[in-house]
Amino acid sequence: MKHLDIHKKVKRKKWLEMLLGSDWDLKPAGGATGEAFSARDGDRKLFLKCNSSPFLAVLSAEGIVPKLLWTKRLTNGDVITAQQWVNGRRLRYTEMNQPKVASLLSQIHRSAELLEMLKRIENEILTPERLLQQLRHKAMFFEEHYPLIYKAFTFLESWKAAVYHDEFVVCHCDLNHNNWIIDENERLYLVDWDGASVADPALDISILLHWYVPKEDWKAWLEEYHLTLDNSLLRRMHWYIVMHTLDWILNESNHEHGEQLEGWLSYLETLITEDRSSYC
């Protein structure tokens, strides 16, 4: 299987070389899928990606991702997108509480154009019920080995009705600090939209606040996002951060992350035993 993956990556690179021509120097641009490349021809440089999100054009038009230059379909069915290369860097962990992060996420969540486009592509809404179904499928045989997993599912099941929220937006669903790019002119972008879905905005906000912003700064951060911190939001964020943490554990438990996995299990236990009386 690994050999087939390598073969596929090599073949894809050859397709791109044929598309661009011999003047372009093509190199992998990171990522496990092997679908992203940088291409350089003298002073010209492009970011290329195979089969990226179909609504990349709308993201580009709203300035959320670097400018989309062109899209081409190869004879093998792959769709190639070329974006303007950004000279910048990923945000550091400690920079995620910046007002510009809150402002950009607010723009995304309030974009009617993005929501309309994603609804055309993705007709499923990630409700708490649907997210629980996905987690159950991933869990399979884990509950008997990790009693805490069973406890987490019990928590999520018991609270899913209480956190249902009928205002749905475009959620990025992977707000890791590595997906935030700031260029040399201090302009911020949010990239890697392959996992975007229509969901409660708390799905995104929960990760950003719980994992990157000190609790004493939540109110100020949300003011920049243009939202009030109230009991309803606290309750929803708590449910979603339990869901995110459980999802990470289920995804990574087959890999060799011994100490790291133990840390996440400990964090999960803290979350589901935390006193929530102030907003329940």
From TrEMBL:
- Keyword set, alphabetical order: Kinase, Transferase
What the entry lists under Pfam families is as follows: APH (PF01636)
Q: Which residues form the Aminoglycoside phosphotransferase domain?
A: 40-229
Q: Which GO terms describe its molecular function?
A: kinase activity
- Does the entry feature the keyword Kinase, yes or no? yes
**Highest taxon of the lineage:** Bacteria
PANTHER family per UniProt: CELL CYCLE REGULATOR CCRZ, PHOSPHOTRANSFERASE YTMP-RELATED
Q: Write down what this protein is called.
A: Thiamine kinase-like enzyme
- Origin organism is Geomicrobium halophilum
Task: Print the organism lineage.
Answer: Bacteria, Bacillati, Bacillota, Bacilli, Bacillales
